User: Fold this.
Amino acid sequence: QTCARPTSHSSPRALEIATRLQARGARFYGAYWCSHCFDQKSAFGSKAVEDIDYVECAADGVDSQRAKCDRRGVKGYPTWDIGGELYPGEKSLDELAELSGFKG
Assistant:
């Protein structure tokens, strides 16, 4: 199973935050069936979400990396791994900017 891709436009700020998250080595753990994960992706928009390191945790998801999710201790979706810390739950772009150290 594959997750629907967001069709929303990526704002310049969303693109900058995605780039900052990528530079920090952040990962976004989720599942294709998770509505909060889709909403999280939609907050970034169709272009910026491509810059996010997404890890599919559903065993029946396309390109599933379930073992990586289990090893990291991911308990729910979405979960962000930023700077070695896990942040469960859907986050606003403002929250993600702060967690990534983005000052823009």
